[in-house]
Design a protein that fits this description.
31% of the residues lie in helices and 27% in strands. By secondary structure, it is an alpha+beta fold. The strands form 3 sheets. Strands 3, 6, 8, 9, 10, 11, 12 and 16 form an 8-stranded antiparallel β-sheet that branches. It has a 7-stranded antiparallel β-sheet with strand order 4-5-17-7-13-14-15, with no helix packed on it. Strands 1-2 form a two-stranded antiparallel sheet.
Length: 395
């Protein structure tokens, strides 16, 4: 609350940015639904994050229980203690220049709560959870010159240094990139490019198909879904939340070799009943860009923009610029002037249509998609830029 109050005083912008969220209908889940959901989460943790934690725990155990003389029960002669002594000069400016503290922080990489229990082991305390044990630890630390200020610095350092292995494993799993995982330690994971994996802003309305997303030479390769956007079985949709009423979103992609009826593009997506998209498509020998609205069961197809030259293999940008209920879709080669494909007014249906059809709750989103149908389709996206626009004059 204090941080929120300070931020509100420092933020001098007067524009209000309301957040509109439709609440779904809450129902009591069945026991089978709870079982399936819990089992999927547990299985995912054990198979992904659990393996990383297991390996990390083995490494830490070896460091704490083996030294140059082999197995040791004295932690002060272990490899971990030696490593802790090497780190002491780096921790002295922080008020943490003790090898025991360094070793406890190393152990905390497995889980932050391990830091305190590790200190109990390193200082020979067997009853650290009791009042007497905590008092004894305080006496030992005070005799070393470790006071209240040092303790505060240690708590702050624990909050800011490398995340635990479970967090790193989850970042690696979600982003698909080890580089992105390690950059998370430096607070450098906010760019919406794909050189380091999938940015955290993106999500999928439904579980994607197998191998739906992969990364190659700094690009995201999206597998086209076998079902169109109007189907609840359309799964390979990568979107992020629309955080403002006025925004610009652009996807840079390599125009793929398309079969008849296939689509590769961007979408302003709410659910399978309500969306609008701008996409490359092919009909016969003609490849074009088209904007299509889907409202309930109705499709509104706007005039196609046909290319004079074959764009396959070229680097193009598909974009949408939104000003409240107005949307302008545009397309063009990278570094060249973009041409308007279609302009739509009163696009209110992204909020209030499809209710009678059993609308799924996802929220207003914008992102990338591909429709493959029966033939394989893989789309190479180089980046996706999203920018909030403060007013209609900011273009």
């Amino acid at each position: 609350l204090v941080i929120a109050w300070i931020t509100s005083k420092l933020d001098k912008t007067s524009e209000m940015k309301p957040l509109l969220i439709e609440l779904p209908i809450y129902k009591l889940p069945s026991l089978y639904t709870v079982y399936v959901y819990v089992w999927e989460k547990v299985k995912d943790f054990l198979s992904k994050a659990g393996t990383t934690i297991f390996i990390a725990s083995i490494v830490l155990w070896l460091l704490l229980n083996f030294g140059f003389q082999g197995f040791t029960e004295n932690v002060s002669t272990s490899f971990a203690a030696g490593l802790g002594r090497l780190l002491v000069p780096l921790l002295v400016p922080l008020g943490l220049g003790f090898w025991q503290i360094a070793v406890a922080l190393l152990a905390g990489i497995s889980a932050k709560e391990v830091v305190v229990s590790s200190m109990g082991v390193l200082f020979g305390m067997s009853n650290l959870n009791s009042a007497a044990g905590a008092s004894s630890l305080q006496v030992i630390l005070s005799s070393m010159g470790f006071g209240a200020l040092n303790a505060y610095c240690m708590m702050l350092f624990c909050l800011l240094y490398i995340p635990c292995f479970a967090t790193l494993a989850t970042i690696k799993k979600e982003s698909g990139s080890r580089a992105y995982m390690w950059k998370a330690d430096m607070g450098n994971a906010a760019e919406e490019t794909f050189a380091d994996g999938l940015p955290g802003e993106f999500m999928t309305p439904r579980p994607p198909e197998k191998d739906a997303v992969r990364f190659e030479n700094g690009a995201l390769i999206l597998k086209g879904s076998t079902h169109p956007l109007a189907s609840v079985r359309a799964r390979n949709i990568l979107v992020r939340r629309q955080s403002a009423f006025c925004f610009r979103a652009e996807a840079e992609l390599t125009v793929p070799e398309l079969k008849d009826g296939q689509e590769a593009g961007i979408t302003c997506y709410y659910d399978e009943n309500t969306w609008v998209c701008c996409y490359f498509t092919k009909e016969g020998e003609t490849l074009s860009v088209q904007v299509k609205e889907h409202i309930g069961k109705e499709d509104i197809c706007h005039p196609k923009a046909v290319f004079a030259e074959n764009p396959v293999g070229g680097q193009f940008v598909l974009g949408v610029e939104t000003e409240y209920l107005h949307r302008r879709f545009y397309c063009g080669k990278v570094e060249e002037e973009k041409e308007t494909v279609a302009e739509l007014n009163n696009v209110y249906y992204l909020c209030d249509e499809g209710i009678s059809m059993g609308k799924r709750f996802t929220g207003a989103m914008v992102g990338m998609y591909g429709y493959a149908g029966d033939a394989p389709l893989f789309i190479r996206f180089r980046k996706f830029d999203y920018q909030e626009l403060s007013n209609k004059n900011e273009k």
